[in-house]
Amino acid sequence: SQINLLIASTQSQLSSVIQHALNQDAEVNGHDDEGRSALVYALVLNEASIIDSLLAHPNIDVDKVDSYGVP
């Protein structure tokens, strides 16, 4: 799915795939089984270019928390 593609691409630091997924209307706030979004993974990896791409998306929810209540 596009959600899994966006998260997997973020985990693998594949900026071009992330940009393509976002351009294809991937669910930017989608999450994995633990409620973690691509933005969370990008922040953990400290990948500034990916963080910027995700934050530039008009539908990004910066207040989303994972299944454990962690932002």
Q: Please, could you describe this protein's structure?
A:
Helix 2 packs parallel to helix 4. It is globular and about 30 Å long. With 71 residues, it is mainly α. It has helices at 2-11, 15-23, 38-45, 48-56.
Mean pLDDT: 90
Main sheet? none
Number of helices: 4
Number of DSSP strand runs: 0
Helix content: 40-55%
**How far apart lie the N and C ends?**
23 Å
The shape, in one word, is: globular
Tell me the structural class. mainly alpha
Unreliable spans are none
N-to-C SSE string, H for helix and E for strand: HHHH
Radius of gyration: 11 Å
Strand percentage: under 5%
Q: Quick recap of the structure?
A:
It contains four helices and no strands.
Which terms summarize this structure?
71 residues, mainly alpha
Secondary structure: elements and pairs:
Elements: H1 2-11, H2 15-23, H3 38-45, H4 48-56
Helix pairs in contact: 1-2, 1-3, 2-4, 3-4
